[in-house]
Structure formats: structure tokens, C-alpha cells
Design a protein that fits this description.
The structure is a single chain. By secondary structure, this protein is an alpha/beta fold. It has a single domain, classed as Alpha-Beta Barrel (TIM Barrel). It has 12 helices and 8 strands. An 8-stranded parallel barrel has the order 1-2-3-4-5-6-7-8, surrounded by 5 helices. Helix 1 (18-31) runs parallel beside helix 2, helix 5 packs across helix 7 (142-154) and helix 7 packs across helix 9 (183-201). The two termini are 16 Å apart. Bound molecules: phosphoenolpyruvate. Phosphoenolpyruvate is lined by residues 11, 13, 170, 175-176, 214-217, 235-238.
Length: 256
Amino acid sequence: MVKRNKWVAGNWKMNLDYSSALELTNNLVANLPGLNGTSVTLCVPAVYLDALKSIVNKNGLIQLAAQNCHSEDKGAFTGEISAAMLKSMDINQVVLGHSERREYFNESNKFLSEKVFKVLSHGLTPIFCCGEPLSVREENKQNEFVTNQLEESIFHLSAEEVAKVVFAYEPIWAIGTGRTASAEQAQEMHAVIRHFFEQKYGAAVAEKLIILYGGSVNASNAATLFSMPDVDGGLVGGASLQANDFLQIISAAANS
Ligand code: PEP
């Protein structure tokens, strides 16, 4: 069995003013535990990326990601940022397809397929989110729903490209609700996702894929979730805004 290193990404969403963002990042850099190969990323508001870069560069152990980007390199898209811009700032990761982008900004699987392609073409790592709403889970159709999202947004990629994507399974009913998927529910879906990729791209690609769980991960439940064989870490919203909580989640990943 392939040993995959863990990943922990904190998604700040549209939170924290400028001085709080600097303070939190300084605190994390100063108190980071031993990582044991765990990757740590802060997905921050784009306006803070440049300032935070000089803080995380102090020890080079934390990466920064944007929370979104457009599918075009430049042009008349007021308010948007491009993968090319991120690359030019030496920002190498970007979240794509978060359920809040899908829901509030009508981002379709097709649009996301164009974004993923563009992000990869610039050599950036997409952190690609998928996950079902509560109504789908209640009908027990979550496997079909999530695999359809992946098929429509990812399956145009080559095996080499897919291997560069980090996936985050985020059941919408667990995001920001305090209602976490059980470790068994997370494991079940992660295994479905890995098997789906295995069918299309083969076992060698599938077994190396990083698949994060997101949805009310916190300092108390992280270790249990991360102990599941197909859960390679977490995409963490609310708990990433508190240094102590986020540091405990990083420790849980590093020790799992
Ligand atoms: C998220 O923002 O992707 C998320 C999972 O949020 P939370 O941890 O707050 O549920």
C-alpha cells in the first residue's frame, strides 16, 4: 500500500480583518508542531496573499492558496483574479469548486472543468471540492452525485494532470453546521472516489491521490477522521480561524 502524506488546509473564507490575518499567521508560523511530512496550507482572501507570503516565508513550512480564480488569464472580468496572476505572485495553490462558490456564484461543473484545466496549465495545484447537499444524502444518492461532479469537471484531464489535483470531499450538510460526517461516512465516500478514479486512470494514479475531508473538522474529531485509510487530511473552515484549534488539527494529522 502506498503511504500518502497528510494535508491540512485552512479555509478562512471571507473572514478576518487585515491585522487579525497577520496575527493569526504569525502565531501559526511561530507555533507549528513537527509536521512529519504533513502539508499545511492557508486558503486566505486574495487581498492578503502578498502580505502573508512574507510571514510564511520565514520558515517555508506553510503554503498559501487563493480561494478561487477565473478560467481566463486576463480580460474584462471585473472583480476576478486569474491563475496567471497567482502564478506571477508565486502562489501555487487555489481552491476550486467550493460549495459556496457553486451555490452563491452559480459555478457549474463545466465552468469548473475549465478552471481546473487553466490552473494546471500554469503549474498550480487545484484543491478541488466536491460534495452532496442534504437532500441528496437523504435519498442515499450521494455516490452518484459526487462521481458525476468529478466526471464532469475532472475526467477531461490526463492521468498526469489528475495526479496533481488535491481533492476535498465536503458534504454540504456538514459545512459550517457543526454536524460532521462520521469517520465511517467520510471513509465510505473517499473509498468511492478513489475507486472511481481507479476505474478511469488505473490503480497507480488512484492510490496516490490526496483526498481531504471537509465539514466541521475540529480539534476533537480530527484524529478520528484522519485515522481512516482513505482520508488524507482535512479542509477546515471555522476551526482554522483559531490558532490553537488549527494547530491541534495539524498535530492530529502529523501524528496519524
Ligand atoms: C469549509 O469551509 O470548506 C468547511 C469545511 O467549513 P467548516 O469546517 O466550518 O465546516
